[in-house]
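pasting for the record
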Amino acid sequence: AFKTMDVEASKKCHQNAALERHNFGGDRYIKSAVFGGLDGIITTFATVTTVAGAKMSSTVILILGIAHLFADGISMGLGDYTSTVAEQQLVRQERKREEWEYDTNKEAEIEEMVDLYEKKGVSRADAQLVMTTLAKYKDPFIDMMMFEELQMNPYDDDDALMGGVITLVAFVLFGSVPLLSYVIALVPGIEFSSDSQLHLSLGLTALTMFILGAVKGSYIDNSSYQDPSWWLSGMTMTLNGCVAAFMGWIVGYVLASIGMKDMS
């Protein structure tokens, strides 16, 4: 309803809460998949173009590409896992502190929230009324403090391990796209020149990056397919990947020009 600014549809959604869709909960895993995939495909393609720019053989491109694919994928997955665990531990620690302060000095906590809302433009009398009433209920009051005072989400209980695994799988899956042309060239009876392998890799990679960017724009950024922002998101991601790949090719070309030889 919000996408089309349809007031009547919005009213119907609020009458039936099941119809009102928000991006939270399991959507966090979709975010991990999309960004893990984008990191994977851009990183691997930059490796491919760097080695190709250095005029190294397809075998070297494939070996380095696969090595980077799995090494970086594991690093990304572990990074996602450890950062989520650290964030959740911090939230739990801060919640315990807020609970202790509530139990030992509730009035001061109420005053903090009153001051905070007064700064937002709420009259002091109204802020005192609302906060004094809410403070009768410990958990909702502490939830409010976590959100408003600490800018933390008290409901962030996503499975850190699952998020890390999804990031790893997405990184490896989409990161393998730039290497497909080089793998196909290994099939007996199929012959690709080095330039053809690179061009096919470029085409497949650009298409995949556009799709991932479009998904990000339409789902994570919450834009509809009638909204051109999904198309712009796809083009932006494709451009980002191409810029990274071009810079990699330049670096490889320069290194080759100053004396680096093919290692195959």
